[in-house]
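quick q for whoever's on today - can somebody do inverse folding on this one?? i tried earlier but teh output was garbage lol. tokens:
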């Protein structure tokens, strides 16, 4: 069974990560969430399989006796109906990840790639530049990007400047670690506690509202 990680994390959350080795019929037959058929029908190939797998791994963290549906709100943010939990999902290559909590949450999983350095100027701000450039430079970039993706997902609205509105507080990289991230935009504010797990060549970052 390709469930490669599942833990209760942070204060109120639970996370699961699944490696896709199955065909789409497996996920359709074993997901107890009610799926948005219109959204599914619009997808093909790898995107369709990742979409199904992400719903399945999310369903592992939920009570199968509850009749829950996952659908996007008016801003495109996936939410449960009825809204018993806050949720977030992510995928990268053959891995899909999900998190549930009573608090606002976000999750991101990314395969290690050197090209992230080419876009660092688009999301690293002056506060982060002070501590990001060391022998763990590439790992630092992945963690900061992952944390900002989590904050963006938790906020759930458009028009977010990853350099201006999102900041990750200084940390010293380790394979398993905790750190803090902030979202500030006009009257909106979020402080998130983050954790990172290194899964071979993948960086798993997840966070929960403080």
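ok took a stab at it. sequence:
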């Amino acid at each position: 069974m390709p469930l490669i990680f599942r833990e209760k994390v942070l204060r109120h959350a639970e996370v699961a990560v699944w490696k896709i080795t199955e065909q789409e019929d497996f996920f359709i037959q074993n997901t107890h969430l009610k799926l948005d058929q219109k959204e599914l029908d619009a997808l093909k190939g790898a995107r369709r399989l990742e979409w199904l797998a992400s719903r399945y791994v999310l369903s592992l963290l939920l009570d199968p006796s509850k009749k829950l549906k996952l659908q996007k709100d008016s801003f495109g943010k996936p939410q449960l109906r009825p809204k018993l939990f806050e949720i977030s999902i992510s995928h990268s290559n053959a891995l899909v990840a999900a998190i549930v909590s009573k608090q606002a949450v976000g999750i991101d999983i990314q395969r290690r790639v050197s090209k992230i350095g080419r876009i660092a100027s688009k999301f690293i701000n002056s506060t982060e530049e002070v501590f990001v450039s060391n022998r763990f430079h590439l790992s630092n970039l992945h963690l900061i990007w992952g944390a900002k993706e989590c904050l963006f997902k938790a906020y759930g609205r458009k028009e977010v400047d990853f350099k201006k509105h999102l900041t990750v507080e200084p940390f010293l990289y380790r394979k398993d670690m905790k750190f803090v991230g902030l979202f500030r935009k006009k009257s909106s504010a979020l402080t998130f506690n983050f954790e990172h797990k290194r899964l071979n060549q993948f960086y798993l970052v997840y966070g929960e509202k403080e």
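fwiw The mean pLDDT is 95. also The chain has two domains: 3-107, 108-209. so keep that in mind when u check it
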